[in-house]
From TrEMBL:
Protein name per the record: Cytochrome
SUPFAM superfamilies assigned: Cytochrome P450 (SSF48264)
Organism expressing this protein natively: Candidatus Endobugula sertula (Bugula neritina bacterial symbiont)
GO molecular function, one term: iron ion binding
Family: Belongs to the cytochrome P450 family.
Pfam annotation, one family: p450
């Protein structure tokens, strides 16, 4: 990804959206049904609580071509990384801007980034997907 960003910085918005789609930070949210609804032959009654998997929705092959693949050139498409509707994250634009500034600075300063020998360590959390540890080696 770094090499592609160095060659074509215009990919930053697409790359940021793709990272958010691919590694959705908030994986699940709880909601309450406001009316009865049938979903795939199952009835969810008004007032029942449901857990929605945003991470799974962002890998839906009906919404995203080759959804399981990371593609920095994927056209920007609506994803649920920051929720939707009245629950949409008010800080989403700021978060995207910070990511783009960081990726831009790293791609300009370094030509390569690799994982160190230690594998990434993910936090054990059903709701938030985040790293506890990520050791990388940067090459100029």
């Amino acid at each position: 990804m770094l090499k592609q960003l160095r060659k074509n910085p215009k990919l930053l918005p697409q790359g940021t959206e793709e990272i958010l789609r691919y590694e959705t930070p908030v994986q699940t949210v709880a909601r309450v049904a406001i009316e009865d609804v049938e979903l795939d032959g199952y009835t969810i009654r008004k007032g029942e609580r449901v857990v929605v998997s945003l991470g799974a929705a962002n890998r839906d092959p009906l919404q995203f071509n080759q959804a399981a693949q990371f593609d920095i050139k994927r056209p920007i498409a609506r994803n649920l990384a920051f929720g939707s509707g009245i629950h949409y994250c008010l800080g989403s634009n700021l978060a995207k801007m910070v990511c783009q500034i960081a990726f831009s600075a790293i791609s300009q300063e370094f030509c390569e980034i690799k994982l160190a020998n230690d594998p990434p360590k993910w936090r054990n959390n059903f709701i938030i997907r985040s790293l506890e540890r990520l050791i990388v080696v940067l090459h100029k």
